[in-house]
Design brief:
The protein contains nine helices and 13 strands. By secondary structure, it is of the alpha/beta class.
Length: about 260
């Protein structure tokens, strides 16, 4: 099968790896769509890396034993190789598993873990069936695109009575807008890049404030009648004061890195 390898600074190449076979709970999934997440940083820096990619959507094409999905199922592929047995895994927090499995030891394959490939090996319980009509491209957003802020919204119990502030409207922040709007919350964004700001409003944000504008904080306070934001989520990846300054004293806030992913 073909897979991608980072071969140098801003360089990548296709390589040949052995064809995969299902073993135990590890099923073979044909990749149809995989998003680019933190891999771009390794690509830009030239970190040599084989088996890149940690999330995807695809189709189960081979199983070794009956499991939670079957051949032909369309699935979202969750990241990492958690053990599935520790306390964190058993309560659904497998993204924090401290006992990650070694794919080579478990299956005998040195490749097969990265999703920038034609196929991937994955435990059956980390393959989530897709609803009918959902495209592979949309399903590929289930992990890092929507998952972190999905968990954040759950932790903060966001609902239709909340005004939610999202600082930083990159891919994860835009996912936060989608998740908050789905919960019928009022969404205010903070972003200085016009393209991202416009896209956030297309996705349902009521307004987006440029943090570099004079009086930006005062403008946000006016939008909440001087009360401040009910709940906030910081997705900017850089120091930002607005999420702290603008929240009410009894408000809740978090960042995607501290929230569990969708499970």
């Amino acid at each position: 099968m073909k897979a991608v390898r980072i071969s140098g600074e801003r360089q990548a190449e296709l390589i040949d790896l052995p064809d995969l076979e299902a073993k135990g709970e590890y099923m073979v999934v044909k990749i149809h769509a995989t998003p680019m997440c933190t891999e771009y940083k390794a690509y830009r820096a030239g970190h040599l890396w084989q088996g890149i990619g940690h999330e995807a959507a695809g189709e189960v094409v081979e199983v070794a034993q009956p499991g939670k999905v079957k051949v032909g199922d369309r699935v979202a592929v969750m990241p990492q190789l958690p053990c599935g047995r520790c306390a964190l895994c058993l309560k659904g927090e497998y993204i924090h598993c401290q006992y990650l499995e070694n794919l080579t030891e478990a299956t005998g394959y040195e490749g097969g873990n990265g999703t920038y490939a034609q196929y991937v090996l994955k435990q059956d319980w980390l393959l989530l069936p897709l609803p009918d009509g959902m495209s592979y491209e949309h399903a590929g957003m289930a992990c890092c695109g929507l998952g972190p802020t999905f968990g954040a919204m759950q932790l903060m119990q966001v609902d239709a009575f909340d005004t939610v502030l999202v600082t930083g409207l990159g891919p994860v922040g835009l996912g936060a807008v989608v998740n908050a709007v789905y919960r019928a919350a009022r969404v205010i964004g903070v972003e200085g890049q016009p393209f991202r700001a416009n896209l956030a409003q297309e996705l349902g944000a009521e307004t987006v404030i440029d943090p570099a504008e004079e009086g930006a904080l005062e403008q946000l306070m006016e939008l909440t009648d001087g009360l401040g934001i009910d709940k906030a989520i910081d997705c900017c990846g850089a120091p930002r004061r607005s999420a702290c300054v603008l929240t009410r004293r009894d408000a809740r806030g978090t960042s995607p890195s501290s929230a569990k992913q969708a499970s």
